[in-house]
């Protein structure tokens, strides 16, 4: 289904990979596909002509930020041509869950991680502002941005102007929800 859509410029696929480290990935996302499987998915899709990219996410300071370049390199070799990244966000509904998870799995790093998150969020644990909520602000956020841009340039990611998907075939659904049976 994706191949014919890709030929007509109707689809591109982005897959999130926060780390290639299987242990970190299993701890962070226990029921999600392993990083090597995500890279292989990019390889197979891009090899079939489906434009692919990666979202290095979520980047968590002192846990997986060190893995950014390795992720970008692996997906570039697998055929990805586009990349983005997102720094961990902690809206109120997940903030306490994350802090509890962090204390349980990484007790020696928990205070450092939370301090860096607050540093990147103007002293808060969450930043709801559109311009800064996905990337953060401050020196560490700038360092992440610079590392990302340097790695992408070196690997040829985001080198081409991103093509807009053809939306001419989209049809707005009617006012009624369709029947299930």
Name the strands of the widest sheet in spatial order: 1-2-3
Structural class: mainly alpha
The shape, in one word, is globular
C-alpha Rg (nearest Å): 18 Å
Can you say what the CATH homologous superfamily of the domain at 2-89 and 130-155 is? pyruvate-formate lyase- activating enzyme
- Uncertain stretches of 5 or more adjacent residues: none
Q: How does the major sheet shape up? A: 3 strands, parallel
CATH topology of the domain at 2-89 and 130-155: pyruvate-formate lyase- activating enzyme
What is the class of the domain at 2-89 and 130-155 in the CATH system?
A: Alpha Beta
Q: Kindly, what is the distance between the CA atoms of the first and last residues, rounded to a whole number of angstroms?
A: 24 Å
Number of helices: 7
The name of the CATH architecture of the domain at 2-89 and 130-155 is Alpha-Beta Horseshoe
**Percent in helix:** 40-55%
Q: What value does the average pLDDT take?
A: 94
H/E element string?
HEHHEHEHHH
